[in-house]
Design a protein that fits this description.
With about 250 residues, the protein is of the alpha+beta class. The chain is built from 7 helices and 7 strands. The protein has 2 domains: about 90 residues; about 150 residues, Heat Shock Protein 90. The protein binds adenosine-5'-triphosphate and magnesium ion.
Length: about 250
C-alpha cells in the first residue's frame, strides 16, 4: 500500500517537473518568436508605406499582399501575447483591496468601449464588503477578458450588469450580459485552451480568467442560455483576518 503511494508521489513529482519544464520552454519560445516577429512587422509597415501611394498595378497588388501578411503578423502577435498572459497568470502580487474600488477603476476605463458598442453598464455594488487579497493587475486582466467576451456577445448592443455582494466565505463578483449566450457544447468546452467559436479568437481568454481566479483560491461559475445571455460568478475567498474582524464587530 505504502509503496503504491510512494510510487504515485514520485510520478506526480516527475510529472510536475516535466510540466514546469515544458511550460518554461513554451514561455521562452513565445518570447523568442515575438522579437523577430515585431521586426518583420516593422519592415512590412515600411514596405506598405512605400507602396501605398504607387498607382502602378503591380505595386497595388504587392501592397495588398503586404497588408495580408501584416494582418497575419498582428494575429500571431495577439496569440503570443494571450499565451504569455496565460503563462503568467499564476504568479501573484497580492494586495489587500476593496473589490468595489477595483471594479469601479476597471469600469472607468472600460465604459467608453462599452458605449461605442451600444452596451449599457449597470453596476450594483454592495456596501461594506470585506476587503480581499487580489493581484490588481491580474484582476484587470481577468475582468477585461470577461467584459470583452460580453461585448462581443452583444454586437447589436445590450446590458452588462456588474454585481458585488458577500456570501461567506466568499465575496462575489457577478457579470451578466444580455448577449447571444452559449449552447451546451460551448459551455462544456469554453475553459479549454484554444477553444473558440470566433473568427480570429485565440481561445485563451476564459482559460486565463480561470487560472487567475484559481491562483487566488477562488472559483468561477457560469450559467448561460442561447439567445438570452450569460452570467459569470466569480467567488473570491474572504481572508481569515477579515472574517475575524467582521465577527468581532
Ligand atoms: N459572455 C459570453 N457570451 C457568449 N459566449 C461566450 C461568452 N464568453 C465566452 N463565450 C464563448 O466561449 C468561447 C471561449 O472564450 P474565450 O474568451 O476563451 O476565447 P475567445 O473569446 O473566443 O478568444 P480570445 O482568446 O480572443 O478571448 C468563445 O469563443 C465563445 O464562444
Ligand atoms: Mg475572449
Amino acid at each position: 500500500m505504502s509503496t503504491t503511494v510512494l510510487a504515485n508521489e514520485t510520478s506526480a513529482e516527475r510529472w510536475k517537473e516535466q510540466f514546469t519544464e515544458i511550460a518554461t520552454l513554451a514561455g521562452g519560445l513565445a518570447h523568442e518568436i515575438r522579437n523577430p516577429l515585431s521586426t518583420i512587422r516593422l519592415n512590412l509597415e515600411l514596405l506598405d508605406e512605400d507602396l501605398r501611394d504607387d498607382t502602378n498595378p503591380q505595386s497595388r497588388r504587392n501592397c495588398q499582399k503586404v497588408q495580408t501578411v501584416l494582418r497575419e503578423c498582428g494575429h500571431l502577435e495577439q496569440i503570443l501575447n494571450d499565451f504569455l498572459q496565460f503563462a503568467r497568470a499564476h504568479a501573484l502580487h497580492l494586495e489587500r483591496v476593496s473589490l468595489n474600488e477595483e471594479v469601479r477603476r476597471f469600469l472607468d476605463f472600460f465604459s467608453a468601449q462599452a458605449e461605442d458598442s451600444g452596451v449599457d453598464i449597470s453596476p450594483h455594488l454592495a456596501a461594506h464588503l470585506p476587503e480581499i487579497d487580489l493581484d490588481p493587475q491580474l484582476f484587470r486582466q481577468l475582468f477585461l477578458n470577461l467584459a470583452s467576451n460580453a461585448l462581443q456577445s452583444m454586437p447589436q448592443g445590450g446590458r452588462f450588469e456588474v454585481l458585488t455582494y458577500e456570501q461567506p466565505p466568499w465575496v462575489v463578483l457577478e457579470l451578466i450580459d444580455t448577449g447571444c449566450g452559449m449552447d451546451e457544447r460551448t459551455q462544456q468546452r469554453m475553459f479549454e485552451t484554444f477553444f473558440s467559436t470566433k473568427n480570429g479568437g485565440s481561445g485563451l481568454g476564459l482559460p486565463t480568467a480561470r487560472r487567475i481566479v484559481q491562483a487566488h483560491g477562488g472559483e468561477i461559475q457560469c450559467e448561460s442560455s442561447p439567445g438570452a445571455g450569460t452570467r459569470f460568478r466569480i467567488l473570491w475567498p474572504i481572508p481569515a483576518t477579515e472574517t475575524d474582524l467582521n465577527s468581532a464587530t
